[in-house]
Write a structure and sequence with these properties.
The chain is about 0% helix and about 45% strand. It is built from one helix and 23 strands. It has one helix spanning about 240, and strands spanning about 25-30, 35-40, 45-50, 55-60, 70, 75, 80, 85-90, 95-100, 110, 120-125, 130-135, 140-150, 155, 165-170, 175-180, 185-190, 195, 200, 210, 215, 220-225, 230. The strands form three sheets. Strands 3, 4, 7, 11, 13, 15, 17, 18, 20, 21 and 23 form an eleven-stranded mixed sheet that branches. Strands 6-5-1-2-10-12-14-16-19-22 form a ten-stranded mixed sheet, with no helix packed on it. Strand 1 (about 25-30) and strand 2 form a beta hairpin. The chain is globular, with a radius of gyration of 22 Å. About 40% of the residues are buried.
């Protein structure tokens, strides 16, 4: 039976361990001439390069903005080269092999699937057909530096504060860039060349498009929902940002 008295309690603060940020993993496969790159909901950073002699394309994981390594098919900061094979362990600790099938002869498709992601394609990568990049929600960076796209380019960054940088980029047909909601920046220049229809959509937020005046357009570009324009990009590429 209660005696009518109420116990007086003090507020207590429970100290929690710092939450461990999980590293992301990218699944990379080359099949039927296409290069498929798929991420997860965590932060991921990848770099794509091409060997000028063999034309093999390599996808390499790099540290994300928090310093966590990005795994390639289960290997932290690992790499995948078309034409080779990589022995890995998947998420459920089952043994898997991923085989490339020679050179990439068709599309490169990248889906980062959310998180604060970084994609760097540089050094003369030659995409035979279409290049598509989807980053999902998060604060994302896409850097296309010295890249040739044989047909169409499509970049969709989803919600978040995103930055897309195109330097010395050549696209032989259509370009579609959709930055989603957030305060975004699109930087174009360094003698980039776009032969087909160009569409760029800033969406909601305060968005800025930068053009250094050296870009060649095959037709008048269609630019929507950008609040500001400028002549030089203040961001630089991923190496200057410290993401790679």
């Amino acid at each position: 039976m209660r005696d009518g008295r109420t116990a007086r309690r003090k507020w207590e603060v429970e100290l929690l361990e710092a939450r461990r940020l999980l590293a992301g993993n990218m699944r990379v496969e080359a099949e039927h001439g296409d290069l498929e790159i798929r991420g997860d909901r965590f932060d991921n950073c990848i770099e794509i390069t091409q060997d000028a002699m063999t034309h093999e394309i390599t996808v390499t994981g790099c540290n994300d903005a928090h310093g966590n390594p990005t795994s390639i098919n289960g290997a932290p900061n690992g790499s995948f080269t078309t034409g080779g094979s990589v022995f890995t362990m998947d998420t459920f600790s089952d043994e898997e092999d991923f085989f490339g099938e020679g050179d990439v002869t068709d599309d490169i498709r990248i889906n980062m699937r959310g998180g604060d992601d970084s994609v760097l394609i540089s050094g003369g990568v030659d995409v035979p057909d279409d290049l598509s990049i989807e980053t999902g929600s998060g604060d994302d960076t896409v850097d296309l530096d010295d890249v040739i796209v044989g047909d169409d380019l499509r970049v969709e960054t989803g919600s978040g504060n995103d930055h897309v940088d195109a330097e010395a980029l050549t696209v032989n047909d259509r370009v579609h860039v959709e930055l989603g909601s957030g305060n975004d920046a699109l930087c174009v220049g360094d003698h980039s060349s776009f032969q087909g229809r160009v569409e760029a959509e800033g969406d909601s937020g305060h968005d800025t498009i930068f053009d250094d005046g050296t870009t060649v357009f095959g037709s008048r570009p269609h630019i929507h929902s950008f609040e500001q324009t400028a002549s030089s990009c203040p961001f630089g590429d991923l190496e200057k940002l410290g993401a790679v």
